[in-house]
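testing teh design pipeline on a random one, pls ignore if ur not involved
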């Protein structure tokens, strides 16, 4: 979807590598063997989530300029 948004001019092509890295991080964290990484407690301590947030912040800065606001609260739905 990011490629399509970039093609339409709604997303800067320069952020695509970071978005791909986010996808790769989440892919590494997927699967039954990584279920504990998706627990509520893991959101604040797991290195994969730290990497995904750091990359997401880079995308926000690239798209919106200086970003000093905290990232939104995460709600876990089960």
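output:
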């Amino acid at each position: 979807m990011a490629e399509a948004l970039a093609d339409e001019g709604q997303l800067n092509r320069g952020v695509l590598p970071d978005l791909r890295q986010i996808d790769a991080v989440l892919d590494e964290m997927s699967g039954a063997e990584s279920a504990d990484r998706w627990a509520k407690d893991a959101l604040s301590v797991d290195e994969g989530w730290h990497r995904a947030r750091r990359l997401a912040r880079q995308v926000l800065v690239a798209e919106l300029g200086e970003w000093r606001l905290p990232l939104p609260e995460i709600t876990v739905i089960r």
